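Async update (no meeting this week)

Hi team, since we skipped the sync, here's where things stand on the single-chain job. The sequence we agreed to prioritize is pasted below, unchanged from the tracker. I ran it this morning and attached the output directly underneath so nobody has to dig for it. Comments welcome in thread, and please keep replies under the output.
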Amino acid sequence: MIAFVRGRVAEVGLTSAVLEVGGAAGGVGLELLCTPGTLAALRLGAEASLPTSMVVREESLTLFGFADDDEKQVFELVQTASGVGPKLAQAMLAVLSPDAVRRAVADEDVKTLTRVPGIGQKGAQRIILELRDRIGAPVGAAPLPGAPAPGAAPWRDQVAQGLVGLGWSAKEADKAVEAVADQAGDRPDVGALLRAALQTLSRA
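Output:
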């Protein structure tokens, strides 16, 4: 298994990033599927190190990349619940922080879990039932030392792209971005802004 990937950021897309490992002379580009918050912290040409989780299928090998080990742990744990695959697990972490997932499960907060596209009321109840004894309490995890500060990239584009990647239309995404613009401040936190935008859309 590939536990982490360290290398130069060669490409940052809407839903994934490519890290070049092995040096310029004979490097290999590995594509990592990431949440918008993780992608927002990456800089083209800069070195990055991301914890990873490999999902093996008969027809594919897919690497998911994470901001930190806590995010990776929750990603892998929620997939032990019935009906939760890697794409839905990633969508959960695009909408909720790892601690927010733990808190929602511990508090049996169905409403919070159903903010995630693809999770209905019955699905949320099943996740709570199957994970509440194993997911643990919120830990207040901080970013890994040396991790880039989130949100330095143009936050409007990152949030809009994240919403479109989760299934909303470009028009809906732009409207939600405008609705949360006053929360951006001097150092926008893309992950928090994305979650706020999703809450706006869920209320609409």
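Quick observations from my side:
The chain is about 40% helix and 20% strand.
Residues 79 and 85 are 6 Å apart (CA to CA).
Reply here if anything looks off.
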